[in-house]
Amino acid sequence: MKPPTSPMSAQAQAVANKWTQAALSCEPADHARAETAVRLAYQAAGHPEPSRFLWCPSPPAAMEQLHRVIDDGHTSLVASVRRGNLNRSLAAARAPIWEQTSKLDRFTAHGDFHHFMEWTGYYGEQRYDGVEARYDLMEFPYRCNPVTEAEAAALTPVLHAVRQVYDLVHAPIWASIDRNITASYTLLPARFWDTESSIVDQDDEGHAVIRYCLNPRDWFFEPAWNLYPDWLLLATIDTYQQLLETTPDPAWEGCRKVTLAAGPWWPFADIAVMSERPTFLRVDEQGRLHNEDGPAAVWPDGSQTWARDGNGLPPR
């Protein structure tokens, strides 16, 4: 394990570039490569391979297909095939760092990590006594190892770069999709992070690490964040591998390969719903989804998102 040499070293920039470029890719999806990778992800999670791949020409078409698949009673495997595999890999990559951390640094990391989660409200209910002394009831603390200083220094610049793509490009796209198609709780089984039952999923290591490094206020419903945060998780694991020189569990390989070969995807029992990438995506000099004279994003079926300065517009 080695710490990063600077807040945004060339190595960190390379990792950030890989996953921001994947998130912005307009290359045609490689169906054969993506389907092979999906099978690998199912195997890693201990599930039988899907017998059918439902390729959709756009995310809006995929949302409609997800409605049908869920209504037909197919069991969602998002929690195990995507989230579970990535968490296993991340936990394996993080373990050596904690093992090599001194007792004093562990104590400091634990205090900083849980204090942050309390004061930003992730740990739920807060009470005050008669003289306004504050009591935080840590009803749902994370059970994973706290994030050390070396981890935070390596992860934060990379994750900020990838998160910016969500804020400036994918947020208006998915907000448009949500307004037109998915504005219901029907699609909860297809969400990557379902925070309906409590503020904190205590065993979600990836969520804990990303929250600590970025502090995204993600308990509200943001479609791009809740349905497809895979680029952020993959960038997190890749940072451990490339910058901190630890080895993730191989369970992430299937998710990594399919994300580099296709658009968003959702695993179900016996069926995998796949999405094509956009054929056109335009951003301005600040990286915001933007086009003055036409749609800012277009998919193979003609679906469009109009946006200026990173703000979605009604289609014309």
The largest sheet, given as strand count, sense and whether it forms a barrel, is: 4 strands, antiparallel
Low-pLDDT stretches are: none
Strands of the biggest beta sheet: in what spatial order? 6-7-8-9
Mean pLDDT score, rounded? 89
Q: Give, in order, the helices and strands.
A: HHEHHHEEHHHHHEEEEEE
- The 3D shape can be described as globular
Oligomer: single chain
* Number of E-state strands: 9
N- to C-terminal separation?
53 Å
Helical stretch tally: 10
Beta-strand content estimate = 5-15%
Estimate the helix proportion, in percent.
40-55%
Tell me the layout of helices and strands.
Layout: H1 10-23, H2 31-44, E1 52-56, H3 59-71, H4 78-99, H5 103-119, E2 126-128, E3 134-136, H6 149-182, H7 205-214, H8 223-227, H9 230-242, H10 253-259, E4 265-268, E5 271-275, E6 280-281, E7 297-298, E8 304-308, E9 311-313
Parallel strand pairs: 1-5
Antiparallel strand pairs: 2-3, 4-5, 6-7, 7-8, 8-9
Helix pairs in contact: 1-6, 1-9, 2-10, 3-6, 4-9, 6-7, 6-9
